[in-house]
Specification:
Layout lengths: L2 E6 L6 H6 L5 E2 L6 H9 L5 E6 L5 E14 L9 E16 H6 L7 H4 L5 E4 L1 H10 L2
Length: 136
């Protein structure tokens, strides 16, 4: 299993919106960055991800699961853009903020810390464990 991080502006698509979709999940559409798209193309069904609120909160707030392999993004006719479908698994008991991640030396190489603008990014196994523990 691989781990990922999905960033969303809560005013556009929030954790509550994702949670409301239940087991049906939702397409992670609208991504127009090649690196983020390529990350989604690497995802497998069953991979897990952090749901991250960008903008003001800047925090990991929940855990999601990839429920479909990469497929054409339904929000465009441009064949360059793919997406995956994800479903909410559980909320974190305590949000893990970007500042908390930056303050933890074990996370200094995390993509979120080094390139916080990338909307879909990989998370290493040890980073996954650390953030899950921080949010417990």
């Amino acid at each position: 299993m691989a781990y990922w991080l999905f960033k969303s502006e809560p005013s556009t698509w929030s954790w509550q919106d994702q949670w409301a979709k239940g087991d049906a999940g939702e397409e992670w559409d609208g991504v127009r960055n090649y690196q983020a798209r390529n990350n989604m193309r690497l995802m497998q069904i069953g991979d897990r991800g952090f749901f991250y609120h960008s903008q003001k909160q800047k925090a990991v707030v929940g855990i999601v699961e990839v429920i479909s392999a990469a497929h054409p993004d339904s929000t465009t006719d441009d064949p360059r853009w793919d997406c995956v479908d994800i479903k909410a698994i559980r909320a974190l008991s305590m949000p893990v903020t970007l500042d908390m991640c930056k303050a933890d030396p074990r996370l200094h190489d995390m993509v979120l810390v080094k390139n916080s603008r990338l909307s879909v990014q990989p998370v290493r196994d040890e980073e996954w464990e650390i953030i899950c523990a921080m949010g417990a």
